[in-house]
Amino acid sequence: MGWKNCTACGRNYKEGRQGCTNSACRLFHQGGAAQGGGGASAKTTENASVVDSPAVRRPAPPPITKVEIPEPVNPLRVSPPPIVVTPVAVSSTHVLPVIQSPSEDTQAREGGSIDIRQQLLDLQGGSVASLVLDGKLSELGKGVNKQVYRVKDAPWVVAVTTQGAQGSKWRAVEAEITQLLALAASGVRVPSLGPVASANNALIDVIAADGQPAKAFIEQLIVGKHNLCRQESHEYADKFAGEIERVIGGRHSFDLARWRNAKDDLDRLQAYFAKGTDIPDFQIVVEESTGHIYTIDPGDPNATGSVLSKHVQWLNTWQKVITALEPRKR
Asked: Is the pLDDT of residue 200 over 80?
């Protein structure tokens, strides 16, 4: 028997035995028919040896890994944050006093001022008498320049002024309003005139009850003794010193809150007079319910001479009452 080449790996094996002796060959121990029935050509055997030999066999390609590609995600539409407008102080010829924490009474009063002012604007030059007939206004009193009406169920009054000789009364109320707004801007306590910043803005054209053309404006109602004493009287300072003590409560029914309110308002007046500026036709009223001291009805500085020294003396008289009633000295 002769030798044959294995057709798979090319190793020589002895014909008639168990076949190819290469344990790594796919035809290991196989001969005869398994070897293809005959010897392969040297070229064929060589090629088979190069391709199928474990030493030179090409490595199997790596398995294909399926990569999951996520679906594109549409970006969420996010609404821009709301624009917050920060209130900015606006400069003007007059700035109404700012109350940091307005009480319910103050809020209601300011709301009422808008209501009654709108009613006057709605008259469109009509007669104030119509508001009286409707029961919205009632007569309260009359002065040299003004007829005053009380607003029903609201802490406000409406002052109505006719023209007077050559417009003298109109000039007088324009000066009064201008002075009130200026005093308020300087920190002096005065009756509120509602949401206005000038005399021109405050005055509304109406017809007076007697049929004459007139101008009207609104003002905060101050409940107190307005006619206690005329400021021309030498008793004016003493009369109001007694009124301040009465409202505060004196030594037997002392009210600390009213005392503090009165002291604060007099301190404001002292600071104003310390600038060397007088208040023409200076007069006050003490509010019954709070003890606040309001400066009311100021005059025209162009028509009234300055008597600052006298007004400072009045103020000193009133401050002595406050000092005498000071809690730590009682």
From this structure: yes
